[in-house]
Queue: 2 jobs
Job 1
Amino acid sequence: MAKHTKKNYYAIIKGRDAPAISSSWAVTHLKVSGYSNAKYKGFQTLNEAKSFMENNECYNYEFLDDGAEGERAPGKGEVAYYAVAAGRSPGVYEFYHDGAEKEITKYPYSCHKAFKSQKEAEEFIQKYENTLSDMMDQLRL
């Protein structure tokens, strides 16, 4: 089985406010979810994301430096906090099964991520909410 690697940067070729590179899944999710034919990919390094942009002939793009989202995802057997930013009941859950999973399953455009600390999970949700608020403000202009 392939090892899941942490994505630190997201190259967005097609999406809202694209092209762009973001350092946050909370922000990226809002830029691509529900966007017809969105094209994006996650990478461990900024150079990998930049190469992806260039390989897709995107040379002028915005860099959305939204700060790191935790040191790394919790490993198997480690305590995890599951941030549900968009789901039936957004919040931080200590369990995936019997917790976060039921909040996101079959929920359109759900957004969630696992963290090593409750603080990081809460910051992820706040970042999502702030980005959503900014996007709504732009629509009102």
Job 2
Amino acid sequence: MMKVIILAAGRGTRLGYHTKEIPKGLVDVNGKSIIERQIELFKKNGITEIVIVRGYKREKFCWNDVTFIDNEDFANNNQLASLVLAQNMVSGNVLILFGDLLFEQTILDQILASNSDISIAVDLNWKERYDENRNNQFPALAEIENDKITRISENKSLVRKKSSGEFFGIMKLSSKGSKILTDVIEKTKHHKGKFHDSYSFAMGKIPDIIEEVIDLGFTVKPILVSGKWFEVDTILDLEKAKTIFQ
């Protein structure tokens, strides 16, 4: 059985008035919220064990068949703090994903087909999506060599090899992979000072813990996906997402 953990504690300040009264993951895209679309897709594929880490405006999440974990200090932390709160749920086969991510069935098919212990969804066409003039946040780029991720970082100044793709927010774990990740979290969650690309563990993002896993010598495999996906960070993103996902 596959379990899903959705990290959805953040407000999404760059969405402006859209998140004044609701959290980012509940923003409407053509009649359905982002997370509603995620849940529908998972259930359609027989994945019914769903965990959501919520924070900002948490009372707005109201599904009866979902397990909720509350990140009380969401305003002062980031994705890794939410993941620590859900640490006990990371067991068996697990998908960990962002709560602001839209994706279609073909993307999910490609991810579920991976039989690696630790794998992340990567899009090689990142240059077509990234527009420096729009002041987009630079993507988390995963460098790939011999079918392994050798480094992942949002640091724009790094010199990267040609074989790099964008990690857009979905990680797949086997039972063994879940054990590796929880062990790494346990060893690093009290880390003091800078943590990879972030200035602390609590403010860390998923790419930071992936980089830690790699640095400790574990294998992280890329899932090279093609198809429609979109991470909704800004008002402009939301408008574009509405043209892609009907």
